[in-house]
Amino acid sequence: MFAILACVIIAAAIFSVFTKRIMRSVTALLFVLFSVAGMYFLLDYTYLGTAQLSIYAGGMTMIYIFAIQLMSKRTLQGFVESINSKRLVMGSIIALVGCITVIVAQLKSRFFEQFCKIEDAEIPMETIGDTMMGSEKYQYVLPFEFISLFLLACIIGGLVVSRNQKEDK
After folding, report:
1. Which regions of the chain does DSSP assign to beta strands (E)?
2. Which has the higher per-residue pLDDT, 125 or 74?
3. How far is CA 49 from CA 33, 97, 102, 113, 140, in A?
């Protein structure tokens, strides 16, 4: 099952990146997210699997809705993104610089050394739950709330943009 899910993830991710049609790209990304949720369920991480399905797959549904709202049906069916080599090179350079920045930051913080120190020690789910939902230092409830507010602002912004485009017509 792992091999099947891994193949689906790799194939759908490659298709999502290299397709020129926006709806096909979003659909392939949806397959990636469902397959990652399947990996979580395979590992018996039901909380992470359900969070993956509800948050990310729900986010893909919102992208579908906004794509349909912001573009007319004719435009959406025939929308093909042209590949500009100058933008491709610039995007690749920016991605490489970002990747190098993340690796350098992780090497400076000794993340890899701390990660390798854990010798097959299984972390109890209670500790993971406390870490994800705690509000103290190195706990994640506040970043999660900020991300939810940011996504809400994006939804409102998308509605405003779609409303302005309808008024212009």
Report:
1. none
2. 125
3. 10, 32, 26, 28, 18
